[in-house]
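Priority: medium. Attachment 1 of 2:
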């Protein structure tokens, strides 16, 4: 339909498809989030851990156990418990952590910035290495360079992350001394440094604390490089696939017939078109690092959300476990939807 005909239609007729799209998008978000809440709720009910005994202990009198069960609403029918659970979750109330005795939401607000900082730096490393390697592998398809990039990616998918983390600590910390010991900040700065946003590296640079920034960097670089390696393995493989598809298109043949340089064809034309689906790949890689850094945080004693959930699970602190799971799931949903919106914005062909 031409622009003149479309512009001549009444406003309510032109606005109707937009409204349908917005309602459909909102329906997807609400349904997905309710599904996440339903899964976490029923997991909390089927796990053989009594939340009342986790709070009071095994030797609590029966009267105290009954009063606490009523106060927590565990004596109500299951559908009423789920309604209360959804209402509290929407209000950001995930209960109190048995391990820390603090509200779970305040604990998550304290530890989640560490995970964001680690995953962000890992994604930056993986993207800055994965895209060029994927492009070169596609351009040099079938050569030794292509095989080498694919082998590096295969190792990234195959080697257990905890084993590679322990090996990296043995080599770069214990043997070479290039990085700092596990943790997020040195003992010398732990109590003297006051973070603002919870992102230590950015806060140290913003406040001009150069010694603190160097110390934080020496702590974060090894776990971030490890996550970046796994992110790079995924991004390079997808970049290679997208570039192979673009290099076989007719516009590439036409560009070569016009006499354009090979570098301009590859890095300006082909990569620009391949960058549209790469946005989704990078976003999903980032979300995966946010939710999948549990083992990395455990190996490197990184005080993030993954380590918080692990310690809570070991101590049967189900409020903290389920609260952290909801936050991670919500973050994954949000990033996934954002990447979908970016994809539709960058590629006009998907807007129909």
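Attachment 2 of 2:
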């Amino acid at each position: 339909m031409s622009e003149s005909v479309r512009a001549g239609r009444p406003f309510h007729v032109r606005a109707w498809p937009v409204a349908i799209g917005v309602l459909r998008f909102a329906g997807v978000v609400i349904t997905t989030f309710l599904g996440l809440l339903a899964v976490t709720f029923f997991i909390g009910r089927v796990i053989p851990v009594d939340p009342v005994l986790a709070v009071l202990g095994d030797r609590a009198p029966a009267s105290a156990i009954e009063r606490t069960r009523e106060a927590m609403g565990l004596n109500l029918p299951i559908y009423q418990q789920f309604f209360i659970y959804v209402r509290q979750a929407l209000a950001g109330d995930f209960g109190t952590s048995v391990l820390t005795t603090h509200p779970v939401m305040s604990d998550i607000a304290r530890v989640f910035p560490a995970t964001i900082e680690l995953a962000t730096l890992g994604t930056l490393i993986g993207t800055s290495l994965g895209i060029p390697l994927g492009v070169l592998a596609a351009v040099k398809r079938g050569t030794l360079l292509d095989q080498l990039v694919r082998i590096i990616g295969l190792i990234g998918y195959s080697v257990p992350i905890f084993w590679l983390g322990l090996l990296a600590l043995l080599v770069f910390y214990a043997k070479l001394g290039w990085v700092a010991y596990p943790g997020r900040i040195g003992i010398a700065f732990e109590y003297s440094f006051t973070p603002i946003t919870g992102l230590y590296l950015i806060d140290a640079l913003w406040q001009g604390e150069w010694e603190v920034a160097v110390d934080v960097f020496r702590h974060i670089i090894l776990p971030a490089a490890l996550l970046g390696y796994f992110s790079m393995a995924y991004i390079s493989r997808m970049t290679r696939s997208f570039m192979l598809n673009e290099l076989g298109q007719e516009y590439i043949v036409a560009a070569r017939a016009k006499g354009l340089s090979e570098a301009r064809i590859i890095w300006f034309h082909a990569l620009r078109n391949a960058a549209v689906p790469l946005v989704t790949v990078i976003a999903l890689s980032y979300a995966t690092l946010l939710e999948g850094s549990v083992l990395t945080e455990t190996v490197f004693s990184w005080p993030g959300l993954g380590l918080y959930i692990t310690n809570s699970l070991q101590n049967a602190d189900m409020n903290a476990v389920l609260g952290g799971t909801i936050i991670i799931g919500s973050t994954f949903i949000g990033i996934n939807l954002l990447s979908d919106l970016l994809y539709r914005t960058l590629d006009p062909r998907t807007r129909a």
